[in-house]
Design goal:
alpha/beta, binds cytidine-5'-triphosphate, 408 residues, Rossmann fold, 33% helix, eight-stranded mixed beta sheet, 14 helices, 23% strand, 2 domains
Amino acid sequence: MDNKKTVLLGISGGISAYKSVYVASGLKKKGYDVRVVMTENAAKFVTPLTFETMSCGKVVTDVFDPRNDTPTEHIKLGHAADLILIAPATANTIAKLAHGIADNMLTTTALAATCPKLISPAMNTDMFENPATQDNLNILRDYGFDIIEPAYGMLACGVEGKGKMPEPDVLISYVEQWISKPKDMKGLKVLVTAGPTEEAVDPVRYITNHSSGKMGYALARMAARRGAEVTLVSGRTALPREPFVETVDVLSAEDMFKAVTERAPEMDVVIKAAAVADFTPANPASEKIKKADLAVSSTGMDGGRDMSIKLAPTKDILKYLGEHRRPGQFLCGFAMETQNLMENASAKLAKKNVDMICANSLRTKGAGFAGDTNVVTMITKDGIKELPLMSKTDAADAILDEIMLHVK
Ligand code: CTP
């Protein structure tokens, strides 16, 4: 990562401190410099040595420890941090932070730091919902802290409720959202579509395609990280929700048409990465189609039945957007082809009146639906740019870079 960023991970004394080990490890894998400050109680759940062994530097737990590098270690650590994540944050630590109490290394360092601060409260539901804790969290919100909502689930006390520290990946996405990218898309409204559509044959069956949604989700994630206000209109996928993105779930091409065209007028950029069905059953059955009701096959085995489905074209959403775009709006489509990639993709630029087509061939190694990589060629009126094989996340970033060259 360019300009390595420093994340200060503050850990207070709760059972979910064990999950902070995975947070530290995940952040390190992503290239962040991770420093750790623990309260004395946190060090009863997980030892400082765990983090030190993971190359998080010397873990500081005591302001007055003569082994600290400097007598003002709290100031040094606070100033070196690009972001502080306190996870888990106990009710006690939250109360101290809200009232400027600096009686241990964690609270003192947080008070001295001017960087963005994220808090991940983790405690029993009643403690979390107690008005004192809620008031303290509101004070912290007013001070500019970002509070990460605790998750629901089985708590250490054996009760099911709200109060769990979210999974490490969620906390890592918060960190990335705050500091991984310059916010060059701030002020832009971006709509991304992703995933397949499902076209009902009857209440039990549908016609779909192999789209995993990964390319569209990566575009939505990276646009949000770059500061855009992102709406993701998604067909059914197996992917987890993207934090910081408003997701609208749809199933059919018709649902997607409605969801997109309703929202498009207010969007600055629309990226259509979804694999929309071109055809849908013309007369979907309202009840399950039974084999016995079908005509007996003239060619099949004894008792075999013929089944044919009449298909009707769906509405071409991108073409509609091209015809109804407002001045200054940027439209980007995708073209997944199996042959004559450049010819077919370039034709779509004109046919659908869009500004850019991202072409990818199902025949290219490393490109296509299910994998985590793609090979994209970006076609605009100004020319053609080929991207090498890269992760879908990097491809998304490169596509957004190109879009930003054209968006005023
Ligand atoms: N698309 C759309 N609505 C449809 C079909 C496609 O908005 N009903 C969009 C896709 O999201 C994609 C682009 O159009 O961004 C190209 O999709 P593709 O299926 O490759 O193109 P088609 O227009 O269907 O052309 P063809 O069947 O000739 O490949």
